[in-house]
Design a protein that fits this description.
The complex is a heterodimer of chains A (261) and B (244).
Chain A (H helix, E strand, L loop, with lengths): L1 H28 L6 H21 L7 H28 L1 H4 L6 H29 L11 H25 L3 H15 L6 H4 L4 H8 L1 H14 L6 H29 L4
Chain B lengths: L3 E13 L6 H6 L3 H4 L2 E13 L3 E5 L6 H8 L7 E5 L5 E3 L12 H11 L4 H15 L14 H14 L4 E5 L7 H16 L4 E5 L3 H7 L2 E6 L2 E7 H13 L1
Parallel strand pairs in B: 3-7, 3-8, 5-6, 6-7
Antiparallel strand pairs in B: 1-2, 1-4, 8-9
Helix pairs in contact in B: 4-5, 5-6, 6-7
The chains are: A mainly alpha (261), B alpha/beta (244).
Chain lengths: 261, 244
């Protein structure tokens, strides 16, 4: 199965990237502000959270703007990919019913699309980091492997949701609520571990994957804290297992999707 | 010795009538999937097609013709049996390759080409030819969702006709577009079909076309092969059967 997976990746790599790029182009073709939206959207969202939680409720977190913004970027990537995954097959029914394409390629292409948006936003983040004079440390580099884990974990989750999304009509609604809940439990605008009463905060910061990943990414990026390697390793493993299981499921059932969508 | 292009062994395809369900149903009724009635579209069909051959498939509506084409194109997985196309590129003509509605015609030519298994360089090199054949003009750089249905099928035809695959599956010989384009596409199609290196399977109800083009005919009836053999012989038997 792994052989087939890599073969498919190689075979469809160009398609993946090309289709991500043209989708991206189409997305902005009809709007006035074009690609500025990708930057503007998380930036404005960040300002909302900053205003509500920073000013109104008063947070004493250091570098609060960067604290929110960096977390928001990671969350947005995960959130968008997962929401897409549930309806991926149905959204591409035009293609899926007419030619064979490994279904995980559809998700991968969307992840590339969101990845490009993410990279642009990360550029803005870099500017903010410099502007607010966050001290530079070598530990900032930990952000890269953590994003890698996020990518693998998202892919794994996405695969599983993609499969069930084909057969279960209202999964998208349920998932929307679930993601909303997860959003508030992931500490985008607060620190899960220190804000929530123990032991709840301690537990949540570990068993909630996005809280764990965001927390460790943010620690390394802003406060020079070394990530919790064991915890990161565990979530990497879970991501890998989900990916393997997901790809296996997709390969097994993908050709019956056509009969349903 | 002639080379075999497509080898189909004991092909069985089932349609499960379960379709989609809600979360409620899937929790309350987890066996729904297993209990759903299964419709057998193809019941163990075996045959071979030689390279360069033009095989026609006839049969009543619902006899499994289109299902078989889709299976050969790799869109369906056989529930039993096997389909071997010897690693050749296969394209399903009538419905073409799916387009992404939001992106432009030009971009869709690239994605379609790649989905059919061609290299991006090859797709790019055939780009102008496809655009010219499709007669879309400046519309080629607009999103496909803005196309009229005629333009849509013209582009579909142009892509599958210009990007030549080794195995071509034709579901109803096409008549797309206006009178002028119809003639042009029919001639192009005929050229493609009659090419000696290309293996073609045509599904059609047009007896005259089949008689003119095919070297052999396969008659499907209720998911089974009723008859396979010389064009005239099978077509005569079929017409007699249908007139009763």
């Amino acid at each position: 199965m792994m052989r087939r997976f890599w073969g498919d990746i190689k075979r469809y790599a160009y398609f993946c990237v090309y289709s991500a790029k043209s989708d991206l182009k189409a997305e902005v073709a009809n709007s006035y502000l074009n690609w500025i939206w990708w930057v503007l959207e998380p930036l404005l969202n960040m300002l909302v959270y900053y205003f509500v939680f920073g000013n109104l409720m008063g947070s004493d977190q250091e570098y609060y703007i960067i604290f929110i913004y960096s977390a928001l970027l990671m969350w947005n990537f995960f959130n968008r990919c997962i929401i897409y995954s549930v309806k991926a097959v149905r959204m591409n029914r035009e293609i899926v019913t007419k030619v064979y394409v490994p279904k995980f390629i559809l998700l991968l292409s969307n992840m590339i699309l969101n990845g490009i948006k993410l990279l642009i936003s990360l550029g803005i983040l870099a500017v903010l980091i410099i502007a607010f004079r966050v001290p530079f440390t070598v530990k900032m580099l930990y952000v890269i492997p953590i994003y890698l884990i996020v990518f693998i974990f998202t892919f794994g989750c996405g695969m599983v949701f993609m499969h069930f999304g084909v057969f279960i009509d209202d999964l998208a609604y349920a998932l929307g609520i679930l993601l909303n809940m997860l959003f508030f439990m992931s500490g985008i605008f607060y620190n899960v571990e220190t804000t929530l009463a123990s032991p709840l905060g301690y537990i949540l910061a570990r068993i909630n994957p996005m809280a764990a990943l965001i927390n460790n990414m943010r620690g390394a990026l802003i406060y020079g804290i070394t990530p919790d390697f064991i915890l990161m390793f565990i979530w990497l493993d879970i991501g890998l297992i989900l990916s393997i299981v997901g790809v296996r499921i997709i390969y097994k059932y993908e050709n019956s999707y056509v009969k349903v969508v | 010795m002639r080379e075999t292009a497509i080898e189909i062994k004991n092909l069985v395809i089932n349609y499960r009538n379960l379709n989609r369900m809600s979360i409620h149903q899937s929790i309350m009724n987890p066996n729904a999937a297993r209990r759903a009635d299964v419709v057998q579209a193809l019941k163990g069909v075996s045959f071979e097609v030689e390279k360069g051959e033009i095989l026609g498939i006839i049969g009543r509506n619902g006899s499994g013709k289109s299902t078989m084409l889709k299976a050969i194109a790799g869109i369906f997985q056989p529930d039993e049996g096997s389909i071997d196309t010897k690693g050749k590129q296969v394209s399903l003509m009538s419905i073409g390759v799916g387009f992404k509605p939001e992106i432009t015609g030009r971009e869709n030519i690239m994605t379609s080409g790649m989905l059919l298994g061609f290299s991006p360089e090859y797709a790019k090199s055939k780009m102008e030819e496809i655009i010219e054949f499709s007669e879309l003009g400046e519309f080629i750089d607009r999103p496909v969702r803005t196309y009229s249905s005629g333009m849509y099928s013209k582009l579909t035809f142009a892509i599958t006709a210009v990007l030549e695959t080794e195995i071509m599956l034709v579901d109803e010989v096409l008549s797309v577009g206006d009178e002028h384009f119809r003639k042009k596409s029919f001639n192009k199609m005929k050229d493609l079909i009659l090419d000696n290196d290309r293996t073609v399977i045509i599904v059609s109800h047009a007896m005259d076309t089949l008689r003119e083009l095919c070297t052999r005919i396969l008659w499907l009836h209720d998911g089974e092969i009723k008859m396979i053999g010389e064009t005239d012989e099978v077509l005569d038997a079929y017409q007699q059967f249908m007139s009763v």
